[in-house]
């Protein structure tokens, strides 16, 4: 028995159990005292063929995307599509089609979360084979709904302010942070980290006067621009010096012993 498991890629596979026998030798090529050379034609199907990696599919969010694999087997394999280990069923969102060789999954993309890895598994009495492909979606960037932003962010005086924003959208957007309408740049106290999935702003040694208030983060790619404002409060002890002068008029009352002197003439 031949069995193909977890083969990833764009594939053309023929499965037979057992492989077809070769034809009878048509002729004897050479005979010696200790050996004989025979020649015969190879079987029509030997149970397998090359496997080619499937290419990632890129589509615009809101449009239909197609992932196709090519699998052939005998007996005819049962074809199923999966995502996150869960079988996909025929519906308005997912359409499956096959001509016996080419198997296609059509995805009606409605949200950025439709992006990811999709797997096709073919099964027959001989065994099982699978191939996976990644669907990438292009769209205006947006702030990830699974990581909502806070109404207010806090940091202590002299500490580090950290603002973390998770986003989705492709192509990867250009990201800019603003404070007091001025763009922020990396410096001794300011660090900005941008990745394909999030942006992180860190400011060291924050103070009430210089760092409290509104921060804006802007995401921009060829499909559009979005931004949002994050409110920051710097907490801790701060001193207010007040100078005042008050005048008091004091009256002191005290008694003094009277001395009496007597003079004789």
TrEMBL record:
Full protein name: Ig-like domain-containing protein
Signal peptide: none
Organism of origin: Crocodylus porosus (Saltwater crocodile)
Tagged with keyword Cytoplasm: yes
Gene Ontology CC: cytoplasm
UniProt-annotated location(s): Cytoplasm
Annotated Pfam families: I-set
Keywords noted in UniProt: Cytoplasm, Immunoglobulin domain, Repeat
Family statement drawn from the similarity comment of this UniProt entry: Belongs to the protein kinase superfamily. CAMK Ser/Thr protein kinase family.
Chief localisation class: cytoplasm
Record-annotated Ig-like domain positions: 26-136
């Amino acid at each position: 028995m031949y069995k193909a498991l977890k083969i990833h890629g764009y594939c053309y596979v023929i499965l037979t159990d057992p492989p077809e026998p070769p034809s009878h030798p048509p002729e004897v090529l050479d005979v010696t005292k200790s050996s004989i050379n025979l020649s015969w034609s190879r079987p029509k199907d030997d149970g397998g063929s090359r496997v080619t990696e499937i290419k990632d599919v890129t589509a615009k969010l809101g449009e239909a995307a197609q992932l196709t694999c090519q699998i052939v087997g005998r007996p005819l394999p049962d074809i199923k599509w999966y995502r996150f280990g869960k079988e996909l069923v025929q519906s308005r969102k997912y359409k499956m089609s096959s001509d016996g060789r080419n198997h296609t999954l059509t995805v009606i993309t409605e949200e950025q979360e439709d992006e990811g890895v999709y797997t096709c598994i073919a099964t027959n009495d001989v065994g099982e084979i699978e191939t996976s492909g990644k669907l990438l979606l292009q769209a205006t960037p947006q702030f990830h709904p699974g990581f909502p932003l806070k109404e207010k962010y806090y940091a202590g005086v002299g500490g580090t302010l950290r603002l973390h924003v998770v986003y989705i959208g492709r192509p990867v957007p250009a990201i800019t942070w603003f404070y007091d309408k001025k763009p922020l740049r990396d410096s001794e106290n300011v660090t900005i980290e941008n990745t394909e999935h999030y942006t992180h702003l860190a400011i060291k040694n924050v103070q009430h006067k210089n760092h409290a208030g509104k921060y804006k983060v802007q995401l921009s790619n060829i499909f559009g621009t979005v931004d949002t404002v994050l409110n920051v409060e710097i907490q801790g002890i701060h001193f207010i010096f007040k100078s005042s002068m008050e005048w008091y008029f004091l009256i002191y009352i005290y008694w003094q012993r009277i001395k009496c002197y007597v003079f004789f003439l």
